[in-house]
Design goal:
heterodimer, A: 122 residues, mainly alpha, 6 helices, 70% helix, elongated, B: 182 residues, Rna Polymerase Sigma Factor, Chain: A, Arc Repressor Mutant, subunit A, 2 domains, 77% helix, 0% strand, globular
């Protein structure tokens, strides 16, 4: 008996009625809204650049306070969703390092003796 | 290689005047297949809906970089399967589920009335599949349920054909064992 005969095809999980009739419009609507808010991300990035540049001028007089203000400003932009996670990564010098830190914090540690294939596929 | 239908869609998309029409045609051509492969992985419609939309939004963002080295189908499937796998990985981490907790929750979803129309064989198969690692489960679905060739699956997953054959063979053995224990 072949594998296909042993394992019958699964019935497709049925979506709600009219789902596929409405889906194209929903997707195009999301794409359209992303285009509109994209310029906001650039404006926010420019504002932060000016802020950082401005703060940098007075850094040597009150370096600790300026760094705290900058961190708070960055948090504000992230919390208010002016910046998405993707925006923050794109503005970083080393986005891979940020992602590695997040993965190290959250992901359980696999057995070091496993190869990448073994970790993923078995 | 793109087929004739894909070529027409791409021509429409690459022309700024007909880009939207072309992309709608792309959605209409592939929405059901994309939804189906995602739904088989994440099971829950609301999650599959979000990921299907995310897939096409990403496709829209990157379609200019698509040069026809693969078919539109495998390119879209690659985005879709990556979205599904990333979602499943994040879901487990976000809720601090152990792998067994996550399996139990997904299995309990399958037990809900109407999910699989009372088909007991399908229910057992789907629960057995949940015991596989997500990527191995994906390979099983692509090979056994979607009837893709190993070459196509290799393009979608970026994995060698040899590794895929080994993974599929392992998956089949595990499922057979799991079903025989029921």
């Amino acid at each position: 008996m072949t594998t296909m005969q042993k394992f019958p095809k699964s019935h497709d999980f049925n979506p709600p009625e009219d789902y596929f009739e409405n889906l194209p419009e929903e997707i195009m609507s999301v794409i359209g809204s992303k285009k509109k808010t994209h310029w906001l991300a650039y404006a926010a990035a420019a504002a932060v650049f000016i802020l950082v540049f401005g703060l940098g001028q007075s850094y040597y007089t009150a370096p600790q306070n300026n760094e705290l203000i900058l961190d708070q400003q960055i948090d504000l932009f992230i919390d208010s969703q002016y910046w998405t996670a993707e925006d923050v990564l794109n503005m970083s010098d080393d986005p891979d390092a940020i992602l590695d830190d997040i993965i190290d914090e959250e992901l359980f540690v696999a057995d070091d003796s496993w190869t990448e294939d073994q970790q993923i596929w078995y | 290689m793109t087929n004739k239908g894909d070529q027409e869609i791409l021509e429409l998309i690459h022309n700024p005047k007909s880009r939207e029409i072309g992309f709608r045609a792309l959605i209409l051509a592939y929405q059901k297949r994309v939804y189906r492969v995602i739904r088989r992985m994440v099971l829950i419609h609301e999650d599959a809906d979000d990921l299907t939309q995310d897939t096409f939004v990403k496709a829209h963002k990157h379609i200019a970089r698509f040069h026809g080295n693969s078919s539109l189908f495998t390119w879209l499937y690659r985005i879709a399967t990556n979205e599904a796998l990333t979602f499943l990985a994040q879901k487990k981490k976000r809720h601090f589920f152990s792998i067994n907790d996550h399996q139990e929750k997904m299995a309990s979803f399958l037990d809900q009335p109407g999910t699989l129309n009372g088909d007991q064989i399908q229910l057992l198969l789907q629960k057995s599949l949940l015991k596989l690692p997500d990527k191995q489960r994906l390979v099983f679905h692509l090979k056994c349920q979607e009837d893709l060739t190993y070459e196509q699956i290799s393009e979608i997953t970026g994995t060698s054909i040899g590794a895929l054959k080994a993974s599929y063979h392992h998956a089949v053995k595990k499922i057979e064992k799991s079903l025989s224990e029921e």
